TrEMBL record:
Active site as annotated: E254
Swiss-Prot/TrEMBL keywords: NAD, Oxidoreductase
NCBIfam families: HpaE (TIGR02299)
A Pfam short name: Aldedh
Tree of life domain: Bacteria
Name of the protein: 5-carboxymethyl-2-hydroxymuconate semialdehyde dehydrogenase
UniProt key word Oxidoreductase: yes
One GO term (biological process): 4-hydroxyphenylacetate catabolic process
Amino acid sequence: MEERLENIQLFINGEFMDATTNETFENKNPFSNEVMNHIAKGDAADINKAVLAAKEAFTNGPWGQMKVKERMKYIERIADLIEEESETIARLESLDSGLPISQTRKMAARGAENFLFYSRMVQARLHGDAYQVDNEFMNYTVYQPLGVVGLITPWNAPFMLLTWKVAPALATGNTVVLKPAELSPLSANILANVIQKAELPKGVFNVVHGFGETAGEALVKHPIVKAISFTGETTTGKRIIKNSADSLKKTSMELGGKSPLIVFDDANFQQALDATVWGIFSFNGERCTANSRVFVHQAIKEPFVEALKERVQNIIVGDPKENDTELGPLIDTGHFRKVTGYIELAKEEGCDVFQGIVPKEYQAGNFVPPTLLLNAKNNMRVCQEEIFGPVMAVMEFKTEEEVVRMANDVEYGLAGYVWTNDIKRAHRVAQAIDSGMIWVNSQNVRDLRIPFGGMKASGIGREGGHFAMFEFYTEPKAIHVAIGDHPIPKFGIK
Ligand code: NAD
């Protein structure tokens, strides 16, 4: 019998409460598929309550009028409290999502960093520009918060991804309604607890749990909400853009991926191997930037594939609570069926499927073994569609031109990875690949100042750094001031 947890409520206007309908939904543990607790099932009425509280907090509460330094004290307090709670966050996140605890520990630490980073960023960088126009005008810009912003997050790295959004949204002075993914609701309430402990003014931060089609859509359509920052599937993103059109909302879209990793024959073999394995099997393969398509140069394909097979057989698949587990269970049975369905499809499409081992005692969980789709072709569905599990297609190439063409021959454009010791080729290929982010001779590591996001079907806009601050969570206002008596056209004078 797995752990039983307390039920979870909504957090609106500074208070934890049940849904208006009193309805709840089950939250299951991906390791056992047993019910861990029940979650308040918010809908349009709860979203409306939360939006009105956030609007009141923005318009009449102290948050909007607060000095920046004072607001940042709250933001830094949140960071400190997350740090204090980090082991609880890591443990609950692992229970809720099936992610190995060694990885959720890092995600919790990153959550605290996101708040600290935006406190520093806003204090140092959130300022406008001045434009002197001869002796006639002084024009300047100020960056103002939008008001109430809606944040909608996925289940694959729940806590880290919601802090990506909540930290810049609050630090720039907005108020927030968060709709976390229904499959991983726990860590949003830890943040609500932290924010309550940090004594943020009521209504500044609100959480409404519930389903995408009800709570999510109500948030997207709410006329008071100024902007929606969304991370999730491409099809959901398209629907959100359509639904936000009537109220002319600003939207930020972080969507799916099918990212290529290219290994040239002069690459550092061991490092490229380490990065390839980690890039697909970390986060249980449920990673938007996963290198789910690997292109290996013909000259090294055989030893590289042999080395991949050896790693795949040795990956530690197991209980996410154990420190040495490298790969845990997928989020739920529905996703398990989707991923295993793709593995069956790969066989039908002509791939040789090579898999690691799931120990027998873990049959109750949503475990998919680490999987290689060997001898794949880029035009197969398994190479074109996002599988979002521990499944990597392996392909061979001969020339740079051919591999760039294949890497780009896909709907998505989120990330890409290039391994070569030829400096000119490294830059050439990095610039030729159509994706928002490219790593050269590196696994996926990201400094918080760098823009994160994709092109093509992988998204619109960027998160992180000053991009989130200036391009999304604030509105630039231009103020034009005459400093002399410049001539003004005279109409209506005889
Ligand atoms: P999803 O689109 O199913 O759900 C994401 C969120 O949207 C959930 O909170 C859900 O309740 C909500 N939602 C669903 N339908 C909605 C609607 N009609 N209106 C409003 N909200 C709605 O995505 P998921 O399965 O939770 O997450 C996995 C996906 O997220 C993958 O495609 C992955 O690549 C992507 N992802 C992208 C990034 C990135 O930065 N580009 C990062 C992480 C995950």
